[in-house]
Structures are given as structure tokens and as C-alpha cells.
Design a protein that fits this description.
heterodimer, A: 455 residues, alpha+beta, 6-stranded mixed sheet, 11 helices, 22% strand, B: alpha/beta, 5-stranded parallel sheet, 10 helices, 23% helix, 32% strand
């Protein structure tokens, strides 16, 4: 089948990969200049087990499918896994009382390697935690992954196996004539037999535009994050999860694959679907929370702050709309679990499409790798032969930047280059490397760093 | 396997203080002195400050930053210093062992002593936690000057500038000479931070200065399009612009130290040192703007020279088998933001830091007072502000009985 996937977030990238490997002819349409321009660029980069998902939910099933597939393919795609485990930490009597319930839910969800830790056991595992910790539930298979390289790897493999990706290509409308889709875009009409809506924050509007009605309503939820400098990483190994409330999983403290420690997200409802601002007071509150839980963080500077919008909807669950007769599938309302569930969602999409028309998987698909930017594995600067280290804070070489531009999916904008290489992502945020990056990227980005020559 | 290089002294950072310390070491007869500089060229920040005044004290004439940097480099080479560029120190280890990345492969440097001279940089937008979008066109003075002087590129045409420290004048100078017209200067404080009459400079250039205002919001989908200023009473004002230039708010470049065996002082942001510049790990020394934000290049050069001499003396001294006397901590009291050094030992004649450097946490007038335990041992009337340097002769602390600690405060 000719499948049109709309939206190059993590779900879109995973879907394109799966459907391509299954033998479909896939076209990805993305209005931004690069992948991960929306919700997917800003999350906490955790690989979840689904231990706290609603039992029996599709979300739980797809997270676990996604987790399993990620573990199965990550080495072939050269994707890092920072094995950390997670602790749901209780800081009050009330939270402590909730841990057995969370443990029971985890077991019900098939995550039966969880273990309740006493205060002493939890502090022995994480000695930098504040002494008012009361106990924790250990979830050993929750890990940290590279939230940017993973979708890049999915799409890279898809493209290597024949998928096509168009950037700067906004879907403006479309019609189904009973057999085929004619999707109108800013760069022309694209024909297909089936459309998969992975448009994230605009999923409901895309549905309304192409199907005439929307089956759900996106209600953006902003999450702000603070990233601590690398000295913070030694203060915490295990992902620190709060006892969740009804509305959100709450503020997480976790290492990143890049050797930092992050705290976030906030959960702020808003109308605007594009503007994800950071806010001085909210960032200050996150830092205060982080220091409350890990007092030694008071002595570590922060590197970066960021904010993203999660495509929450009017209901908590994933919003799947499958209309095989009209060649339509929406994968919508996918919030923070999307990074984990992406491969599961892709497999689910493949199952649904196969029910309409069985496909013939590519017999011997190409396996492609992405460059490693995770701190716990060998980085490019550790191998001789580069010309110079361009970004000193993150130790990014000129060779890595050249390779990114020469790859199958070169960066479309500066954010894309940052996410592929870590350039300018460190503590100085471009103080040292900004000018050199402007020089290296001249003529290569949708919006250049430099506006022109100095007089 | 990484290659191992043994040297007497390794200097981390090839700016004015690092190069000066290496020059002094060679002049004191230390044989193997290695400077590790991560940039393609040594010289530090002056390389991209194309304006005077540099070099009066060191070279007896007025020169621009790049000329000054070149002269300091030449002097180091002439003194027999081994200056290695594109050498990035990636880890400090106990015992004076450094892990170094180079394009030719990994290197381990084993030094008898290490001098840390990694300098300081301006706080980026993220560390200032400024509210708003995160568009392109937001840079610091350091990056702006590298754009202009090293790459001949412009990051914006009409930026809003933030801050009025001395460096902001350098930023204005750079902008105006290269076709960049700042829309306005925003200063959260009610008055300028540079000394009068320098505070008049922006207005003489026709750039409006908003004292008592800060950026309350920043907008732009790709590049900066607009900032919203807010004042103490909540009034707002919108300014169209295509960039934001954050100046000043320098922080020592101390992450390597935090990840290594070096205690970093919360107040100064740099390594905690004694009067010789010796860090918590006695194989490591520190000099220059890494110690505290910030002094000018000439000051850092002199500090480097003295650090070099102190390390030379330490090397000679350690050959005699003598041990260091215990150091007494110097604590920050009322209205004192930082002191350097943070501890003092009654030891050598050669002091890298001949004065106690003090900075205030807020504008104050009163008696700057030093107590040995609870006893006042020194006092002087001051009227000063956080951005001003205050110096106290170290001899003031060394008279009398040795206390358990000193406290510096404004009474």
C-alpha cells in the first residue's frame, strides 16, 4: 500500500519505519524543517515498563511492546541504553502508604520484578537523596534512552529501505475518493491509499481537515525542564519518580544519556499549540524541588532550560481512530509515554493495516546506525583523526558536524543539529562555539545562525 | 592506550593568566612546562576583543586584544613554554594526572603540579532563567565578539542588550563598529554597573538605557522578534528586535574541577584556594578569572606570574621534604559575597595572591571588618558595590596568633 504518514515526531518516525519494513510504500510529510519539531523534542527521555499504566489499557500494551522492541533492535541501530532502573520515592507518610498499591498495579501490569525498598535500602542505593526519604518502590527495567537519536534511527532505517520524507511540507487539506487519498500540501498533492495521522499537537485539527470531523480534542499541556551540568550526574543513578497524582506523573529527576541530570516536567494547561515558553518562576520552583530532594544540587550550575507541549487530549487514554474503509488511522493524544510506546504504536498500526491488506515484508532490510552521542559510550572525540573540538562543553568534533550534514537525514535547522550532535547544548550554550558553528553551518540551515557578514 | 607525557608543570588554559604562569615557571628555572589550550590558538579572551586598552603594564604600550594575545603567546614561546593547542583537558585526576583529548588521540599528562587557568564566561540565557521562547539570536558578548572578530559574521542587526557591567561597553563598541545598532540596554539595577563617566557611554551613542527593567518575556518562532520589558511595579514595554545580547554576569569555568578532585567554593564559583593559589588537592593550583569573576587581562597576567612563581617555589620546597602548615579558613560574613583566597597558611614568602580579594553581595557603606575568631584584627571604612574590587593586604591577616578561622564582613 501507499501510505502517507503525517508528522515526524517519534511516533511518526517509528510508524514510517515499521510500515516500510513491512513492505509498504511510505511517504512522511512534516511541515517543520526537521524531525522532532513538536512534542517529541522535549521529554524526559525515559524508557518505561508500563508498570504504572492503567491495567488492561492499550497504552500499557503498546508501551510494553515498544519497550521490548526497543531492547531488541537498539544495538543494531547503535542506540544507547543507560541502565538506571527507577524508584518511585515516597517523601511523606501518605505517599508511603500508596507504594503497596503501586506495587500491586505493577504486578498486575506484568512488571513483576518491582521491589519495595525501605528507607535505608533506598538511601544506600542513592546516598545523595535527602534524608526525609521514607521508602521507595524499585522498578528495575525503567531506563534512560536518547530521545533524539532514537527517532532519528527509526527514520534513517526507513529511508534506507525506501521510505521518503518531505520536510517543510505542510498538509493543508485532502480528500478520499472512496479508494485513494489526495493529500494537499504546501508543496503539492500527495496520493496514497492510507493516511496515518501522527500530527501530535495538531492531530485533532488534521482529522477535522481531512475527515470532516475530529474524534478528540487536543489540550496542550506544557512541561518545563531544567538540565543540570554534568557534575550533577554523580548525585543520582536511579530515575527518581514521584508518587503520581491523578493529573500527571509529576516531577521526575533523572540522568540523561548525555551525562546531565534533568528535573521536570511541570504540567501546565494552555491553549496555544506552538508556543512552549520557559518561565523564570516555574524553573525556579523546579530547581527548588530538585534541591529539596537532592540537597547537593545546590552547588551544581544549570546548563539549559527547555519546555515542550504534550499533546494531551480531553481523555487520558491514547486516541486511536481507525477507519479502514476511508483509509485512515489516527494515533493521537499520546503524551509522555510516546517515546516508549512509539515502536509499539507502529506495530499496532502495522497490525491494523495488515487486517485490510496483508503486506509482504522486505526480505532483507538494510540496518543503519546513528552516531553515538551518549556519554557512557565511546564518543567521537575519543577516536583520533578529528580536526578540532568545536563545542568544548559537550566535546563535539567538526567531524561529527560534517557527518550530520552528510547523513541520510541532515539537520534542517539549528535545533536539529543540536539534537544530532549535542553542539551548543552544554553549560556555555554557545559562548565559545556559537561563532564557529555559525561558520560551519552557513547556507545549510533553514534559518541561519548568522544574518550576514560583519561590516 | 593513551600516550603518557611527564612534565614538571601542566597549565590548563592558555589565556593571559595561564601563559603568564608558564612564563614565570620557565623564568624560575622549571624545565618542562606544558600549556594545554583547547582552542586552535592560545591567547584567551583578548583574541577577540579588538579594542584597547591592553598591555600597558606587561608591554609598556597600549594595544588591542588580538595584538596583546599574540605578544603574550610569543613571550611564552620565547621563554621555552610548550604550548599545545587543540588539547582539551577532559578530566582532572588526583596526583596531578590529566586526561587530554587531541586530534591525534588521547593523551595522559602526568604533572608534578597543575595550574588551572580556565577563565570565566558570561552566564547564558538559560542560567539566567529568562522567560519566553527560545529562538535564535540570543548570544553573550563573548560569542558576539567571536562572530565579529574571528568569523566576520553578524548574529543580529538590532539586538536588545542586557546588563551594564564594563563588558557591556566593549559589546556596544563592537556592535557600533560593525553595523549592529542596539535597540536598547536593559539593566535590572536602578543604576549602571560600570563606573562614571563610563556609564554615560551608551547614551552618548544614542542607545536608550532602561534602568530598573528586565526582560519579562521573549518572543520569536525562529529568530528573536520582540522582547517585553517589565519593571519593578509590573509595567511592561515591548521592543521589536532581532536578537538579545546578554552581557556580564561572569561565572568561573569550573566544571572540570567540580567533576575532579577539586573543591569549588560556592561563593566565588571557582576553586577554593590558599594564598599561594593552591587548591584543595595540593598538586593543583588556580589563577586568573577562574578564581573569581572577573578582573582584566592585565590583572590576570600578574596573577599568573605570581602563581607561576609560587608553584616554582613549591616544587623547590617539596624537594626539601618540608610539609605545609595547616590553613585557616576565611569565611564570608554580613554583606560579603566572596573572598579569594578562601584560606590562608603561614608558609611561603612567595604569595600568588598578595591581597585578600573581597566582593560585596549588595551595595554597602560601613566598616569592612576582619575578625580572627571573634576578635577584630582589621577594619576600614568602605562605600562599595558588588561589581567593585576590594583588596585587603594579606599581611593584615597574618599578624598575631593563628585563629581557627577568619571572618570578613561589613559592619
Amino acid at each position: 500500500m501507499r501510505v502517507v504518514v503525517i508528522g515526524a515526531g517519534v511516533v511518526g518516525c517509528a510508524v514510517v519505519r515499521r510500515l516500510t519494513l513491512d513492505g509498504h510504500q511510505v511517504m512522511l510529510l512534516e511541515r517543520a524543517a526537521d524531525i522532532l519539531a513538536g512534542a517529541s523534542k522535549a521529554n524526559s527521555a525515559l524508557l518505561h515498563t508500563g508498570f504504572d499504566a492503567p491495567p488492561g489499557s492499550l497504552e500499557r500494551e503498546l508501551m510494553q511492546r515498544g519497550h521490548a522492541e526497543f531492547m531488541a533492535i537498539r544495538e543494531r541501530l547503535n542506540l544507547p541504553l543507560l541502565e538506571t532502573g527507577a524508584m518511585v520515592a515516597a517523601w511523606t507518610e501518605e505517599e508511603l502508604a500508596k507504594l503497596p498499591g503501586i506495587e500491586a498495579q505493577a504486578r498486575q501490569n506484568g512488571v513483576d520484578d518491582v521491589a519495595l525498598l525501605t528507607r535505608a535500602e533506598a538511601l544506600a542505593r542513592e546516598p545523595a537523596l535527602a534524608p526525609h526519604l521514607m521508602g521507595a518502590l524499585l522498578v528495575p527495567r525503567e531506563h534512560v534512552i536518547d530521545a533524539w537519536s532514537s527517532p532519528l534511527a527509526y527514520l534513517t532505517q526507513a529511508v534506507a529501505n525506501g521510505a521518503e520524507a518531505r520536510f517543510g511540507c505542510e498538509v493543508t487539506g485532502g480528500r478520499h475518493d472512496g479508494r485513494h487519498w489526495f493529500v494537499e500540501t504546501s508543496t503539492g498533492t500527495v496520493e496514497g491509499d492510507f493516511v496515518v495521522n501522527c500530527a501530535g499537537l495538531f492531530g485533532d485539527r488534521l482529522e477535522a481537515a481531512l475527515m470532516g470531523d475530529a474524534s478528540f480534542e487536543i489540550r496542550p499541556r506544557k512541561g518545563q525542564f531544567v538540565v543540570y551540568d554534568k557534575p550533577a550526574a554523580k548525585l543520582l543513578t536511579t530515575i527518581l519518580l514521584p508518587v503520581p497524582t491523578e493529573r500527571t506523573k509529576g516531577v521526575v529527576l533523572a540522568r540523561t544519556a548525555y551525562g546531565n541530570l534533568l528535573v521536570g516536567p511541570t504540567a501546565e494547561e494552555q491553549e496555544d499549540r506552538s508556543r512552549a515558553t520557559v518561565d523564570q518562576d516555574a524553573l525556579g520552583a523546579l530547581m527548588a524541588k530538585a534541591v529539596e530532594l537532592i540537597p547537593a544540587l545546590a552547588d551544581v550550575p544549570i546548563n539549559a532550560t527547555y519546555a515542550g507541549l504534550r499533546p494531551a487530549s480531553d481523555k487520558k487514554e491514547y486516541r486511536i481512530r481507525h477507519e479502514p474503509d476511508r483509509g485512515w488511522l489516527t494515533l493521537g493524544g499520546i503524551r509522555s509515554t510516546g517515546l516508549t510506546a512509539a515502536l509499539g504504536l507502529a506495530a499496532h498500526a502495522a497490525d491494523l493495516l495488515a487486517a485490510r491488506e496483508p503486506a509482504t515484508p522486505i526480505a532483507d532490510p538494510a540496518w543503519t546506525t546513528v552516531p553515538n552521542i551518549a556519554e557512557h559510550r565511546e564518543r567521537d572525540w575519543q577516536r583520533s583523526g578529528y580536526g578540532e573540538i568545536v563545542c568544548h562543553c559537550e566535546l563535539v568534533t567538526d567531524r561529527e558536524i560534517v557527518a550530520a550534514f552528510g547523513s541520510r537525514l541532515p539537520p534542517g535547522d539549528f535545533g536539529g543539529l543540536r539534537r544530532r550532535t549535542r553542539a551548543a547544548m552544554g553549560r556555555c550554550q554557545g559562548f565559545y562555539c556559537g561563532a564557529r558553528l555559525a561558520e560551519l553551518t552557513r547556507g545549510r540551515l533553514a534559518m541561519p545562525l548568522s544574518i550576514g557578514e560583519a561590516e | 592506550m593513551s600516550q603518557i607525557v611527564n612534565v614538571d608543570v601542566a597549565v590548563v588554559g592558555g589565556g593571559p593568566s595561564g601563559l603568564a604562569s608558564a612564563i614565570a615557571l620557565r623564568r624560575e628555572g622549571v624545565t618542562d612546562v606544558l600549556v594545554l589550550e583547547r582552542e586552535p590558538e592560545a591567547g584567551g579572551v583578548p583574541r577577540h576583543c579588538a579594542h584597547p586598552p591592553y598591555g600597558i603594564r606587561e608591554f609598556g604600550r597600549l594595544m588591542t586584544g588580538p595584538t596583546y594575545a599574540a605578544r603574550v603567546r610569543e613571550r611564552a614561546i620565547a621563554a621555552g613554554v610548550d604550548v599545545r593547542v587543540r588539547h582539551s583537558v577532559v578530566a582532572l585526576e588526583p596526583g596531578g594526572r590529566l586526561q587530554v583529548a587531541t586530534p591525534e588521540g588521547a593523551l595522559t599528562v602526568q604533572a608534578r603540579r597543575v595550574i588551572l587557568a580556565t577563565g570565566a564566561r558570561e552566564a547564558p540565557r538559560s542560567a539566567r532563567r529568562v522567560t519566553g521562547d527560545r529562538p535564535l539570536g540570543v548570544v553573550n558578548t563573548g560569542a558576539l565578539q567571536a562572530y565579529i572578530y574571528l568569523k566576520h559574521l553578524k548574529p543580529f542587526r538590532r539586538p536588545v542588550m542586557v546588563g551594564t557591567e564594563l563588558v557591556s561597553l566593549s559589546a556596544i563598541w563592537t556592535c557600533l563598529r560593525h553595523g549592529i545598532r542596539p535597540v536598547a540596554i536593559v539593566e535590572e539595577d536602578r543604576r549602571g554597573k560600570a563606573r562614571w563617566p563610563l556609564t554615560l557611554f551608551p547614551r552618548l551613542c544614542g542607545i536608550p538605557v532602561y534602568y530598573g527593567w528586565r526582560i519579562g518575556d521573549m518572543r520569536g518562532t525562529g529568530r528573536v522578534e520582540e522582547v517585553e520589558l517589565v519593571d519593578g511595579s509590573g509595567r511592561t514595554k515591548r521592543l521589536a528586535c532581532d536578537g538579545v545580547l546578554f552581557t556580564g554576569q561572569f561565572v568561573p569555568e569550573a566544571s572540570l574541577m567540580r567533576m575532579g578532585p577539586i573543591v569549588v567554593d560556592r561563593n566565588s564559583g571557582g576553586p577554593s584556594v590558599d594564598q599561594d593559589g593552591r587548591c584543595s588537592d595540593p598538586d593543583y593550583y588556580a589563577a586568573g578569572n577562574l578564581l573569581r569573576p572577573i578582573e582584566n587581562a592585565g590583572w590576570c597576567y600578574q596573577e599568573g606570574l605570581r602563581a607561576g612563581r609560587a608553584v616554582a617555589e613549591d616544587l623547590a620546597w617539596s624537594n626539601t621534604g618540608r610539609t605545609m602548615p595547616a590553613a585557616v579558613p576565611i569565611l564570608c560574613g554580613e554583606a560579603v559575597k566572596l573572598v579569594v583566597p578562601q584560606r590562608i597558611a603561614r608558609s611561603s614568602a612567595q604569595q600568588a595572591l598578595n591581597s585578600l580579594q573581597v566582593r560585596l553581595s549588595e551595595p554597602r557603606s560601613g566598616a569592612l571588618t576582619i575578625r580572627a575568631d571573634d576578635k577584630v584584627i582589621w577594619s576600614r571604612r568602605i562605600r562599595s558595590r558588588p561589581e567593585r574590587r576590594i583588596l585587603v593586604p594579606l599581611t593584615a591577616l597574618l599578624a598575631g596568633e593563628q585563629p581557627s578561622h577568619y571572618t570578613v564582613s561589613v559592619d
